[in-house]
Design a protein that fits this description.
Radius of gyration: 17 Å
CATH topology of the largest domain: Seminal Fluid Protein  PDC-109 (Domain B)
Mean pLDDT: 89
CATH superfamily of the largest domain: Carbohydrate-binding module superfamily 5/12
Structural class: alpha+beta
Distance between the termini: 50 Å
Length: 159
């Protein structure tokens, strides 16, 4: 018979898997945008080197503090360098419109990850809101495409 600790861990794993599956279903169906996925990052599984050929396109994974959506099914089981931040043809970076959840500015990954109107990022110690659609430039490169929302007031977001 399993001890209470093992039973609790198994229950938590089961609940976590169910939460991740429900979130993935919303993302794949187009019911969860970047803001929603970033806000629910605790329910998003962490990327690992594995086979993604049977994973539905749009399924979210997190990697190094960012949330990505699967863009193209692939087998990364023998590809340790196919993480979402490096294999840009396979993943789409999620952005948030919530300034409180903004992360450091990340340049677009080709045509994916372009900044859209209302999406927020952190750069040079400030939170910025994008003013245009399909923006490939950060606040320090093209400041007229961004609104400065003020200094960051949380420790982890400083650049």
């Amino acid at each position: 018979m399993a001890d209470i600790h093992t039973l609790a861990l198994d229950a938590m794993k089961t609940k976590g898997a169910a939460d991740a599956a429900a979130l993935a279903a919303k993302a794949v169906a187009g019911e969860a945008d970047g803001t929603y996925l970033v806000a629910h990052a605790a329910e998003v599984p962490t990327w690992r080197q594995r086979d993604y050929t049977d994973v539905p396109v749009g399924t979210p994974y997190k990697w190094q503090g960012r949330v990505y959506k699967l863009w193209q099914a692939h087998d990364a089981s023998a590809q340790p360098d196919w993480s979402p931040d490096k294999a840009v043809s396979l993943w789409d970076l999620c952005h948030t419109k919530d300034p409180a959840l903004a992360t450091d500015y990340q340049p677009p990954q080709g045509t994916r990850g372009l900044w859209q109107e209302g999406e927020c990022c952190v750069q040079v110690g400030h939170i910025w809101r994008c003013l245009t659609a399909d923006n490939a430039y950060g606040p320090s490169e093209l400041p007229e495409r961004w609104e400065d929302l003020g200094a960051v007031e949380r420790e982890e977001a400083a650049e």
